[in-house]
Give the backbone structure.
Amino acid sequence: MIMTEDAGVQVVRRATVVGAGTMGRGIAQVLAGAGIEVTLVDVSEAQLQQAQEDITQSLHRLVRRGAAPAGQPAEVLGRIRCTPHLDASIGPDLLVEAVVEDLPAKRAVFQQGASVLPETAILASNTSSISITTLAGAVPGPQRVAGMHFFNPVPVMSLVEIVRGERTSPGTVQTIVALAQRLGKSPVVVNDYPGFVSNRILLPMLNEAMFVLMEGVAGKEAIDEVMRLGMNHPMGPLQLADLIGLDVCLHILEVLHRDLGEDKYRPCPLLRRMVAAGLLGRKSGAGFYAYAGGRASDGTAP
Ligand code: 3HC
């Protein structure tokens, strides 16, 4: 990426991740893995406990495949402090929010963060679809707000989609680009627009796979196999929807449909039905496939 203006890159030493769900724990792990002291904040103690277990497992997995030295898990875990309090003790250089996909919830995190952090702190959102410009409008210093969109599973996926809001400063973008590179990721900068680039392209494909299933064109295994073997995708679209979470998929499609105003983004009725029934994919134990301990248990998906 070429930057014409040197707007001053800030070095992130101490960071805060708010939200200890799947994405928040992955983000905390990769930040701590790069030597950054991390405060992981979540209102739920149970969620924080589960996050520590998941991060430990993921770190050991990296050691087993030779991607990290044996001593690394203890070192990385030692850099992550878990707390239910978003107060003045949190990491002051950067706050990454990864809470539920809900504008008021995200806005509240940024406002509370801004009230306890220095005004130089960068406020980044891992949102998959909420407008960065709208979020930034709600906090003092909108120039320090940007999207820092990670992909699941965070320790494995190399992309970070960096979203520039209407008022995001070049310095903020450069700081997040430099940070993503330090995490060993590949940053790509895009402008704020519904679904950004990644989900604007990905979600219509997943949605279409659901229509294909609903219309009886093929069964779930056949649909996934066509895309895996014919297009060389690492997993089929229905398997991927289960990994992302069907509620998250529905939410992104609703944003695309509403904000771009085109019927091609209309969420598949089957998706709506499954979300209403609590079939949310891996995290709920069942979606298009059934899972036990995060792995497919019906012998049909990897
Ligand atoms: N932590 C550490 N390592 C992990 C891991 C984790 N959480 N998950 C997987 N790995 C490692 C494994 O150890 C393995 O390493 P190895 O190849 O050296 O043995 C490697 O990753 C592959 O894992 P598996 O063998 O378990 O399984 P697969 O080969 O099937 O890979 C996958 C799993 C990486 C998930 C692969 O199927 C894949 O890339 N799928 C597509 C994922 C994708 O598209 N993600 C983006 C979703 S969209 C999104 O997140 C945006 C949001 O806004 C919607």
The CA atoms of residues 21 and 142 lie 26 Å apart.
